[in-house]
Amino acid sequence: MEDGGRAHTAIVGWACTTLCLVSCAAAFSQGASLSACSDMMPRHLRVQLHSSNSNYVTVHTNMSFFLPGDKVPVTVRSTRDYMGFMLQARKVSNNEITGTFIFLPPGSKLLTCFEDGDTVTHSDKSLKRNLSFVWKAPDQPIGDIKFFISIVQSYFVYWAKIESAVVAQGGQN
Fold first, then answer.
1. In this predicted structure, what is the pLDDT of residue 55?
2. Would you kindly state where each structural domain of the chain is located, as residue ranges?
3. Span 34-169 CATH architecture
4. pTM tops 0.85
5. Strands (DSSP E) along the chain, which ranges?
6. Which of 79, 88, 95, 137 could be 56's S-S partner, Cβ–Cβ 3.0 to 4.6 Å?
7. What angle do CA 90, 95, 98 make, to 5 degrees?
8. What range does the record give for the signal peptide (predicted)?
9. Alpha-carbon span 130 to 26, nearest angstrom
10. pLDDT at 173
11. Rounded Cα distance, 116 and 114, in Å
12. Which segments in the chain show pLDDT lower than 70?
């Protein structure tokens, strides 16, 4: 009888843990949470952060400078598949999120962290590899920027705030 009680307790514990993990995974399968806006860190249970120096992802643009109101193409390239991501442009001067994304690939959606469309995240958990976006600079001067992306390879493995090279604002005095 004692063994039956232990088995029942073990099964109930396993079922509760499984349901918790499934519900948490489902909550993030349609994009990053607003709670990740400031630090770009996934809010999964027991995730393992990997060094941004050992990632397999690059984020870049073919423009070295931009003017206020310019549209800047942004490309994310990867040598491995991943499920989730969060992409932002940030001012070099103070790390504030800036600008708006105006073109998104399939499997992506806009997220409003501080202003409408200032962040892009995944909209499903399909595997992704190479993605292209278009970011629009604000109409007023903002200074130099960098693009940052956090990548979630699986529910437990991610890389946070992989950064692009600086994209300088042209026409500054």
1. 66
2. 34-169
3. Sandwich (2.60)
4. no
5. 48-50, 57-60, 65-66, 71-78, 84-91, 100-103, 108-111, 119-122, 131-136, 145-154, 157-163, 168-169
6. 79
7. 35
8. 1-27
9. 23
10. 46
11. 7
12. 1-36, 38-41, 43-55, 172-173
